[in-house]
Amino acid sequence: MGIGWPGVGGSRDNRCGGGGMSGRPSEGWCVVATPKKDRSGVGGWGERDVKFSVVGEVGSQVANAVRDKIMEKEAKKEAFRKYLESSGVLDALTKVLVSLYEQNEKPSSAVEFVQQKLGGPSLAEYEKLQAEISDLQIRYNELLAVHQEKCREYEEFKRTDVEASSCKETVERNEGL
Fold first, then answer.
1. 110 and 137, same domain (yes or no)
2. What is the pLDDT of residue 147?
3. What is the pLDDT of residues 119-137, one digit of tens each?
4. Where does this chain mainly localize (predicted)?
5. Are 23 and 56 found together in one domain?
6. Do residue 46 and residue 24 come from a single domain?
7. Claim to verify: residue 116 and residue 151 sit in the same structural domain
8. What is the rounded end-to-end Cα distance, in angstroms, of the chain?
9. pTM higher than 0.90 for the full model?
């Protein structure tokens, strides 16, 4: 397969951009897709079967940026893998999956099996806990409304008590005259 230069066209497997009137690769960029050949010499067009080449000065910069982004993602994946390993998650999951593999009669729900082995609630227990949370939230809201009403009553009582004591002081002063 040939290389498609900017401004010159190219096959549908080549994506080109930039470039000047001359169409030279140094003025723009061009990505060339080439099928990789397997051991039998047969080429494929699957995602992992294609080799991409970037041609041109700008193309090299794009390729470097893409490579850096890929390396950054790979570093994040590796850091996360190390985190899972150091926290014991990988060992726990491995033990559970080995246990599932060794079961003579496979459970009807592999997810529930894994949850149970990791100490989580079953689906029925989870639904029961969710219903209990919902009931408790309703009860909390009811008690909060009662509390707020009692606070309003208390504030009203304090205000009327202050007014009554103020009136009592005024009457006592007037009687003393």
1. no
2. 97
3. 888 778 889 999 999 999 9
4. nucleus
5. yes
6. yes
7. no
8. 117
9. no
